[in-house]
Amino acid sequence: MRLADLLTPDRIALDRTVSSKKSLLEAAAGLLGAAPDAAAGRDIFHGLCQRERLGSTGLGHGVAIPHCRIEQPGASGALIRLTRPIDFDSPDAEPVDLFFALVVPSTCSEGHLKLLAGIAQLFSDPDQRERLRGLDGADDVIRVLNDFEP
Amino acid sequence: MRIIILGAGQVGSGMAYSLSREENDISVVDTDPERLRELQEKLDIRTVLGHAAHPETLIRAGIEDADLLIALTNSDETNMVACQVAYSLFNTPTKVARVRAADYLSHPELFTREHAPIDVLISPEKLVTDHIQRLIEYPGALQVLDFADGRAQLVATRAIREGKLVGRALKSLPEELPPGVDARVAAIFRRDEAIMPEGDTVIEVDDMVFFLAPTHKIRDVMGTFGATSGPARRVLLAGGGNIGAALARRLERDHHVKLIERDPKRAERIAEDVDTTIVLVGDAANEDLLREEGIDEMDVYCALTNDDEANILSSMLAKRMGAKKVITLINRPAYVDLVESDRIDVAVSPQQITIGALLTLMRKGHMVRVHSLRRGAAEAIEVVAHGDPGRSRIVGREIGSIPLPESTSIGAIVRGDEVVIAHHDVVIEPEDHVILFVADKREVAEVERLFAVEAVFV
Question: Collapsing DSSP states into helix, strand and coil, what is residue B42?
């Protein structure tokens, strides 16, 4: 599975506004819960909150990868870009504006772990981060992901 | 963390006070403007006037972005409905409610996500009753805190000259313990200063020693510091409120219990409810009454009325008249600081006990239990270790190689049902429960960071 396969245009939200970490996770759960065969948004929200308690999924440089395991057949993702960055307890204490949220099945495989590592790699590249911050539409986001070879 | 506290009563205000000293964004809701104004003057918090369970009030208090709702109004029903509203309308991640009615509490199936969605139920009276019961079970202890569902306990005791280990280095502790018994001293307080225990630390008379051991071995360890290790037999309880009456019922099977209650009607009701407890009508500050009831032969005297001053006075009297151990319930935090000396052995503060239950929810990481100690200056923490060996700073490492902050020590780990006392070569495995003593609360954030998993941990 490639990163681009995790997303569909309806799970890409550019220029959202939220006012807290909690609202961001709610928004992410809302998008992820709308995917085909997805678990209920409420359960995803609960899972994302639980995972954040163990340690922030903020990577630094204004990006984060909220994720969790959940009872559902496949993995799916959502991308959220905020108009105003929020505090996300990142290691560099920088506020975050770019989020790639991911849910993986509770029987998480090696392939799923690679997906997460791939997202982290994409986000750790300054050029990719800048491209994603400058894009205008969901299709452009998918194109960037398609071009990206982990 | 963004926190909403419902109810500015004694417990609610106490929580607001303690939590506002940390980096939290706090709103307090109450229907009494006077109470709110008082709080507002003292603390850097937001106050909201209104009915605590109404969605409109909750929105004004910032429920949409809140991480934690703590419902502490006087009404169980308001607290329960507020949690329901927070869950159904606002997805609030963690909801805590004070529920006191035993009738509700006896139906745990009520408190599930489908019904009354409350993540943690708090009953300060029950917490205090449990706490005092443990103190009575170990007369030599000044603090007894449970970890790992009661498998391990952290106990504070005062070292006295008679103790075999007193005047000797800690590394000789194993020689004094019966075979098969292991324990670890987690912290020592000498004249109120924390000392980090090392093998060559010499225990001095009057040291306050905190040690961890498996629960059924506590008595063996306590004796080495000179503390009475036998169980208490005779107990006198002053005050027949909910805590006093509950303690009488719990203790009367294994102890000779007497209970003094001032109100004859209340005393009569308690007498109907207990079995072997002797219920007396009278004033606990009355010297003659205490003498008649054999105060000089009491192993433990507990002052449990809702009047702090009365509790302090009767406790000082009881101690002077020969009660071996005196436990005093004190609500006002300022008084707790004042009296815990050689006149009163243990001051029990409902607020400090309750705040521990809340800190468990507020600390980052997979916290199982957090106890607030020494009036909030120290903490004892049980946290689950997650992470992958080789990438974690905890999992897969020997305890001796974990870069703990200066005043923090690991006392034990609990692996499944087994309590493993912390020695420097014990290796932490994934899912181990690690019990830490943080002698200086300012180091808690660093402990949280040590245990935090990597961003890519699944």
Answer: helix
Q: At which residue do the structure tokens 């924390």 appear?
A: B194
Q: Which two tokens stand for residue B34?
A: 């006077």
pLDDT the model gives residue B337: 73
Return all residues near B38 (Cβ < 8 A) that are at least 6 apart: none
Question: Which residues 24-83 of chain A have a CB within 8 Å of chain B?
Answer: 26, 42, 45-46, 49, 53-59, 64-65, 67-69
What residues contact B406, with CB distance under 8 A and at least 6 apart? B196, B440, B443
Whole-number Å distance between alpha carbons of A108 and A123: 22
Give residue B184's pLDDT: 95
Residue B57 is encoded by which pair of tokens? 């009030």
Q: At A66, which CATH number?
A: 3.40.930.10
Q: A46, A61, A67, A112: which is the annotated catalytic residue?
A: A67
Tokens 């689950």 correspond to what residue? Answer: B384
Assess contact for B361 and B342: CB atoms under 8 A.
Answer: no
Q: What is the pLDDT of residues A111-120, one digit of tens each?
A: 888 999 999 9
Q: Which domain holds residue A108?
A: 3-147
Q: How many helices (DSSP H) and strands (DSSP E) are in chain B?
A: 15, 22
pLDDT at A98 exceeding the cut of 90: yes
Q: How many domains does chain A have?
A: 1
| CB within 8 Å: A22 and B67 | yes
Instruction: Name the residue among B2, B93, B452 with its Cβ closest to that of A54.
Output: B452
The model's pLDDT over B10-58, given as tens digits with 9 standing for 90+, comes to 889 888 988 888 889 999 999 999 999 999 999 999 999 999 999 999 9
What ipTM goes with this model? 0.90
Distance from CA of B79 to the nearest CA of A (A): 22
Convert the pLDDT of each residue in A20-75 to its tens digit. 999 999 999 999 999 988 999 999 999 999 999 999 999 999 999 999 999 999 99
- The pLDDT of residue A1 is 78
Do residues A40 and A72 lie in contact, with contact meaning Cβ atoms separated by under 8 Å?
no
Q: What is the pTM of this model?
A: 0.91
Residue type, B254: D
The predicted pLDDT at position A75 comes to 93
Structure tokens at A63: 């990006």
Task: Give the number of other Cβ atoms within 10 Å of residue A91's Cβ.
Answer: 15
Contact B259, B270 (CB under 8 A): yes
* Separation of alpha carbons B215 and B227, rounded Å: 16
Give the one of A42, A53, A116 whose C-beta lies nearest to B458's C-beta: A116
β-pair partners for B358 = none
CA distance B397 to B421: 15
Cβ distance B366 to A54 less than 8 Å, yes or no, reads: yes
Rounded (10°) angle between helices B124-137 and B242-251: 40
Mean pLDDT of B74-81: 96
Question: From CA B348, how far away is CA B131, in angstroms rounded?
Answer: 8
Cβ atoms of B141 and B222 within 8 Å: the answer is yes
Q: CB–CB of A45 and B91 under 8 A?
A: yes
Instruction: Give strand ranges (E) for B292-407.
Output: 300-303, 325-329, 346-348, 367-373, 378-384
CB contact under 8 A, B453 and A58: no
The token pair that represents A47 in the structure block: 């899972």
